[in-house]
UniProtKB/TrEMBL annotation:
InterPro entries tied to this protein: Fumarylacetoacetase-like_C (IPR011234), Fumarylacetoacetase_C_sf (IPR036663)
Organism: Polyodon spathula
Gene behind the chain: Fahd1_0
Coiled-coil boundaries: none
Pfam families xref list: FAA_hydrolase
Protein name according to UniProt: Oxaloacetate tautomerase FAHD1, mitochondrial
Phylogenetic lineage: Eukaryota, Metazoa, Chordata, Craniata, Vertebrata
Length: 219
């Protein structure tokens, strides 16, 4: 069984993706949202995962697909109500992730007071890099992440700008949703989100550690 649960391929068997919205003040402001006083959480199913070599598919019902680059935290040891001072022990490693968002659909959901599922949880809405070991990121609270579309820089930020720290998020989430080995937490996106079109090439990276490329297609 151990070989079937290789943490380096967490996307093949991890059971849930827990996303934190509006965790960078400048991003909250660019979408004209209030800066939150507690984390905004939503979920993606494991069917949202896509890895390099496959395409990001624009959902058929959306005409305004946005990129959001994020540091992902891969859980190595599960738990409920994990105290902040023990939170880092529950991390197996990291991944660079994209939270692809059907922004037109999300705006409509917000207006109607509906959940964001159609905007956030569709197939290929969670592109991920290879697994990054803990050793490669000494301080996940000080990591530079960036994203380019067709070689033009769109997003650049540092996880030090996050409103809620990674230990806080692990503790907060695990009070509500038990964390399990292989789960992924998306920690929020810096400002600069924008629309992508069919055939665009997205490249994203963590400075000096990893970079990924994905192409956008319409089904």
């Amino acid at each position: 069984m151990a070989s079937a649960r290789n943490i380096n391929r967490f996307w093949e068997w991890g059971r849930k993706i827990i996303c934190v919205g509006r965790n960078y003040a400048d991003h909250a402001k660019e979408l004209k949202n209030a800066v939150p006083t507690e984390p905004v959480l939503f979920l993606k199913p494991p069917s949202a995962y896509v890895t390099e070599g496959s395409s990001i598919m624009v959902p058929f019902y959306s005409h305004n697909l946005h990129h959001e680059v994020e540091l992902g935290v891969v859980i190595g040891k599960g738990g409920t109500a994990i105290p902040q001072n023990a939170a880092m022990d529950h991390i197996a490693g990291y991944a660079l992730c994209l939270d692809m968002t059907a922004r037109d659909v999300q705006d409509e959901c917000k207006t109607k007071g509906l959940p964001w599922t159609l905007a956030k949880a569709f197939n290929t809405s969670c592109p991920v890099s290879e697994f990054i070991t803990k050793e490669k990121i000494a301080d996940p609270g000080n990591v530079k992440i960036w994203l380019k579309v067709n070689d033009q820089l769109r997003q650049e930020g540092n996880t030090s700008q996050m409103i809620f720290s990674i230990p806080f998020l692990i503790s907060y989430i695990s009070e509500i949703i038990t964390l399990e080995e292989g789960d992924l937490i998306l920690t929020g996106t810096p400002k600069g989100v924008s629309s992508v079109q069919e055939h665009d090439e997205l490249q994203a990276g963590i400075e000096g550690i990893v970079s990924v490329k994905f192409r956008v297609h319409r089904p």
